[in-house]
Amino acid sequence: MCSNQEELKQLLQRWDKGSKTVRAEILTQFISQCINMTSSELERHFADCASLFLARITTWIRITYMMGTCLNLQLRAISVFISSASGHRFLTEFLEVGGILTLLEIVGLIQTAEEDKMAALELLSQITVAGRRYKELLCESYAVKVVAECLGRSQSIATQDVARQLLHQLAVGNPRYQSQVYKALVALLPCSSEEAQRMAAHTLREVQPIIGVASATAVEPSLQLLRSLHVDVQQEACQLLKDLVMHEEVRHPLLIGLVGLLKPSVDDSTVQAGNRSTTLPVHVQQAGAAHVIQQLVVMGTNEITDMLIEMSVVPHLLYAMGNTAHSNSQRQASLALKTLLETDTADNSKVRSQVEAIVGDEMCEMILTDVDKVCDHITMAQLDMLTSCLSSESS
Predict the structure, then answer these.
(1) Strand, coil or helix: what is 2?
(2) According to DSSP H, which parts of 35-156 are helical?
(3) C-alpha span between 386 and 62 (Å, rounded)
(4) pLDDT number for residue 346
(5) Are 286 and 326 in contact (CB under 8 A)?
(6) Alpha-carbon distance 252 to 269, whole Å?
(7) What pairs with residue 253 in β-bridges?
(8) Where are the beta strands (DSSP E) in 3-75?
């Protein structure tokens, strides 16, 4: 573009005097010609004065980003400099003029277009590649909060995925701020975006081994994910709960929570005869809890199985089997009971005796041999016993 100082001078004058259209043309040409150049190639391209052109782009973006003027082009042009091989000097120059804060403000602005937010997030990701100190600079500028909010509010799955990847990057190799990322991901679990819930749960599973100790604050939001009507969220919730239960510091409250979900609270169950759409998440959560319990027993950890039995999981599963309003609750509870009955533990005979005492020998045998049809053969008398078994247990 500029083989000598005179050509560079003409280009910069054209930029300085040019309209928005002229500057957009210059940026478009620059991106197409220089996108894969190294820093030394960029210097030669601008007659050893590449920093002058970068400074003009960063100045223009700081002035116009709130209006969105050619914002995507500006971000892509800056990316050419920052992502160039051995381009550390360009990164330093960008940061010295407040580049991080500008990018975070772009991401946080409600009026910013999704494609521009994604471009800003990608630039922030490129900054993290430079090393731990740059990750710390981002976190010191409240990047975790801004990026997490973007993930929770964005309407674009592509933008959400870039935000998710950036949060993961900020947790890896960044011990001073990894717990901050962890807390932000936990805070995202109850958000209204199902895709954000799924991504947050998935990233939590990736970050948890880095953090080591599991936080008790993650238990309740993770259990609440089982209410989701979206299969992908349910699957991530199941995997997350299975990962968390391996940590002794949260095992007991998590198992207590799972068993408790098999019998919805009075406030949730009082509307059972009313609006079905109101109660469905409760029933989905009940079925999800039974499924997770069954998966935990399958994992073959006797300590966890014994803890569940001590927490009266058997009568709670039998209670869920009596939920005729939601067939999947019945099916998942039946499968969990079958797995418990087949598990070789010290309390196995106790499981069988509890089941036989409530539904009889014949029903117990059917759970073992033909679990898919057991709910079709429940009599009214057995149904009454199932729905009242927890009352007799507490008395």
Answers:
(1) strand
(2) 39-45, 50-64, 71-82, 88-96, 99-108, 114-128, 132-140, 143-153
(3) 66
(4) 60
(5) yes
(6) 25
(7) none
(8) none
Angstrom distance (rounded) from CA 311 to CA 260: 9
- The pLDDT value recorded for residue 312 is 93
User: Looking at residue 360, what is its pLDDT?
Assistant: 85
- Please report the pLDDT score of residue 206 as a whole number: 97
pLDDT of residue 5: 86
What pLDDT does residue 276 have?
A: 46
Report the C-alpha gap between 250 and 211 in whole angstroms: 14
Amino acid at 343: T
193: left (phi over 0), alpha (psi -120 to 50) or beta: beta
- Please report, as a single letter, which amino acid is at residue 142: Y
Backbone angles phi, psi at 129, to 5 degrees: -65, -25
In the 8-state DSSP scheme, what is residue 275? Answer: -
Structure token pair of residue 170: 């900020």
What are 49-62's pLDDT values in tens digits?
Answer: 999 999 999 999 99
Determine the number of helices (DSSP H) and then strands (DSSP E) in the chain: 23, 0
From residue 189, give the alpha-carbon distance in Å to each of 109, 171, 205, 224.
22, 17, 12, 8
Closest CA to 269 of 281, 258, 257: 281
- The model's pLDDT over 339-360, given as tens digits with 9 standing for 90+, comes to 999 885 565 678 888 888 888 8
**Encoding tokens for residue 254?**
């998590």
Distance separating alpha carbons of residues 114 and 103, to the nearest angstrom: 13
In three-state form (DSSP H/G/I as H, E/B as E, the rest C), the secondary structure along 231-246 is HHHHHHHHHHHHHHCC
Position 29: which residue type? Q
Question: What is the four-CA torsion angle of 337, 342, 347, 349, rounded to 10 degrees?
Answer: 90
> Can you list the residues of the chain whose pLDDT is less than 70?
1-3, 266-279, 344-348, 391-395
The residue behind tokens 């081994």 is: 209
Q: CA-to-CA distance for 229 and 233, rounded, in angstroms?
A: 8
Element housing 220 (H / E): helix 219-224
Tokens 């539904």 belong to residue: 359
Is the sign of the CA dihedral 118, 122, 123, 127 positive or negative? Answer: positive
CA nearest neighbour of 203 among 147, 155, 123: 147
Q: What residues contact 104, with CB distance under 8 A and at least 6 apart?
A: 120, 124, 141, 142, 143, 146
